[in-house]
Amino acid sequence: MNNENIGRRGFLHAAAGAAAFTILKPQVVRGAEANSAVRVGLLGCGGRGTTHTETILKNTDARVIALADMFQDRLDSAKQQVDKLSAAKGHAGVEQTFVGPNAYKQILDSKQVDAVVIATPPYFHVEHLAAAVAAGKHVYCEKPVAIDVPGAKRVLEIGKKAEGKVSLDVGFQIRMAPPFVELVKRIHEGALGEIVTGQAYYYCPRIDFSFPNAPEPVRRLRNWLQDRVLSGDIIVEQNCHNIDVVNWFMGTHPMRAFGYGGRQVRNNIGNILDNLAATFHFENGVIFSYSANQFSTGGFADVSETFICERGAINTSRKGVKIYRNKANPPEEIVTQGYITQEAVNEFVEGARAGKLENAAFTASESTMSAILARESIYSGREITWEQLNN
Residue 67: which domain range? Predict the structure, then answer.
């Protein structure tokens, strides 16, 4: 789409097409015959990436055979874990490792790899995602898909190239959690009437700074979470989870946003915000309030969304869902079972194995853009519209 606007109708049209999946004959799926183990490569061997490999090895029949990272120590640590978990399942572990600036190209060039998990800093997601799709690999890319508007638009083009050829999944894993899937279906069918307002928040402990004595380029990469450019700042890198859930329930993106933010506690390291608040306005008049921080203390942490509807209310958290219908009866409660990311990772592996190809590029780009909308308002100190953002 290059420089053209991504309007509401355009996004909804694209998302509608992406909501379905494509069934292909097993023999056209990249890799071995149907029902054989999917061979996975991990690009980015930090905490999130290694957690994904653990989930894959413990809960699916896939093998993790290749690792790639900028740093040797990260690579070695991930290999040790993968080899241990692979041995417990009775098969070989890592067969290929790649380290350095060109590691992503080397792992994507490997003919042994069928699918790749991208868990690099968000600044690199667009480049790595484009390369993975061009290489014909099924790909699970961590959120956000980009850190700026041109990147989010480019992801739409990458999504078009992936359609019907490879799976392109994104780490907005809440969309795969059964309680949330069922609830969104009910809401969109009008079970509680229209959503009229709501609020969401993401409160978590501070993220520490590491490798303080490393040379500048290394220190910056090691601490990418503390860097505006590499991470996109906390509202894009982390808080996009809430914003994606809100967009999903609303069925569209906000038309404008206004926000504030600051550095109240973590003001001696990095340059990202550590607390913020924003108000999102949707086309149908719904106003949604949002707040977040990365310094919650005393063990408190919570991620939640609340939707006030015409005939009731919904509270969604990572622990479960509560549906309120009237004062006379207690809320209906649906508890989330197990590790919520597991459903998303399982579905990605199964899709790659069976040829059920999904494409999350369109909804993921929309949610990333919605987070960027709030960030740009916070940075500029003025309200930003969707149209202004695209221009």
Answer: 8-173+343-360
Whether residue 112 is found in the same domain as residue 250: no
Summary count for the chain: helices (H), strands (E): 14, 17
What is the count of structural domains for the chain?
A: 2
Measured distance CA(82)–CA(41) in Å, rounded:
11
Q: What is the pLDDT of residues 262-282, one digit of tens each?
A: 999 988 889 999 999 999 999
Task: Give me the CATH number covering residue 27.
Answer: 3.40.50.720
> Per the domain annotation, does 292 fall within a domain?
yes
**Closest alpha carbon to 248 in 323, 322, 175, 321:** 175
Selection from 134, 143, 125 nearest residue 341 by Cα: 143
d(CA 312, CA 95): 54
> What number is the average pLDDT over the span 358-375?
98
**pLDDT band at 338, cuts 50/70/90?**
low
Q: How far apart are CA 215 and CA 211, in angstroms?
A: 9
Tell me if residue 366 falls in helix, strand or coil.
helix
Distance CA(6)–CA(253), nearest Å, equals: 11
Residues 179, 158 contacting (CB under 8 angstroms)? no
User: In whole angstroms, what is the distance from residue 83 CA to residue 232 CA?
Assistant: 33
Tokens describing residue 273 = 């915000």
